[in-house]
Specification:
Blueprint: E1 4-10, E2 15-22, E3 27-31, E4 34-38, E5 41-43, H1 45-56, E6 60-65, E7 74-75, H2 77-84, E8 87-91, H3 94-100, E9 118-120, E10 125-128, E11 131-137, E12 146-150, E13 153-155, H4 177-188, E14 195-197, H5 203-206, E15 213-215, H6 216-222, H7 232-243, H8 252-259
Parallel strand pairs: 3-6, 6-8, 8-9, 13-14
Antiparallel strand pairs: 1-2, 2-3, 4-5, 4-7, 10-11, 11-12, 12-13, 14-15
Helix pairs in contact: 1-2, 4-7
Length: 266
């Protein structure tokens, strides 16, 4: 049985949060939830939409998952956990990110040292009702980035964007263009019809509407940064030159403070 995946788009940050459901048991995982941030204050509306969907759909939340420590929006994971339950998890590489950024955020009192309930190793499998989520380590954007695979569906986080947008920047602390190339190519070597569910899209500056899904075959044929025929050294040179001219995300400081140790509470 295939998982049911429902996207929730936050236009302010260009983020797509996902609800993954095992239709047979109604068990769910929430991925990359978002909290709004206006004038230094939390706006719960984007995360509240996911929580309302969970309630009205009669779902039981087993997992609240992050693909990485986000630098451009306030993560809604901890807020969602308190609203609808589930264990809060991310990749074990988050510890490297936390060490690199330790001076920019305070550890919460009590709880785990990392702020998360579970840290996942590459290849680890998580039960979701009668289905199984496989965790794939995909460092590059940060050292802690992971993708979540469930059957022929793959939630790629910030590793791969839609083909016309390429890949995510690699100039944040613990980021590495060489690691990004290898991670992206790892995902593209999955079965050609694997459906890639993206967690960021901006509509290419209005050239098209925001888009949420591609396939491995489409990415291998058309991704402007990592398609077949390009090599690692060319990618690294392109990525580094592009990153040198990118401005820091507007919410960088607020996002790191809020997200580094698992996110803010309700």
């Amino acid at each position: 049985m295939r998982a049911a995946l429902t996207p929730f788009y936050d236009a302010a940050s260009g983020t797509i949060a996902w609800v993954m459901v095992d239709p047979g048991t109604r068990r769910a995982a929430l991925v990359d939830g978002v909290l709004g941030w206006t004038g230094g204050r939390i706006d719960p509306a984007p995360a509240a939409a996911l929580a309302e969907f969970v309630r009205t759909s009669g779902l039981t939340v087993d997992w609240v998952l992050e693909t990485h420590i986000h630098a451009d929006h306030v993560a809604g994971g901890r807020w969602l956990q308190q609203a609808v339950g589930g264990r809060l998890g991310t990749g074990e590489g988050v510890s490297e990110v936390q060490r690199a950024l330790a001076g920019r955020a305070a550890k919460p009192a009590g709880g785990s040292a990392t702020g998360f309930d579970a840290l996942f190793a590459d290849g680890q499998r998580l039960a979701l009702g009668g289905l199984e989520i496989e965790v794939l380590s995909v460092p590059g954007h940060t050292a802690g980035c992971v993708a979540y695979r469930i059957g022929d569906d793959l939630l790629v986080g910030d590793t791969l964007f839609m083909p016309d947008a390429g890949t995510a920047r690699c100039d944040f602390p613990t980021g590495c263009a060489h690691r990004m190339w290898r991670s992206a190519r790892r995902l593209l070597e999955l079965a050609p019809l694997t459906r890639l569910h993206h967690c960021h899209d901006y509509g290419q500056d209005g050239a098209r509407p925001p888009a949420f899904v591609s396939t491995a075959a489409e990415q291998r044929a058309h991704n402007i940064h990592v398609r077949d025929g390009l090599d690692e050294e060319a990618y690294v040179a392109l990525r580094q030159a592009r990153d040198a001219h990118l401005a820091p995300p507007v919410l960088l400081d607020a996002a790191i403070r809020a997200n580094l140790y698992g996110g803010v509470t309700r």
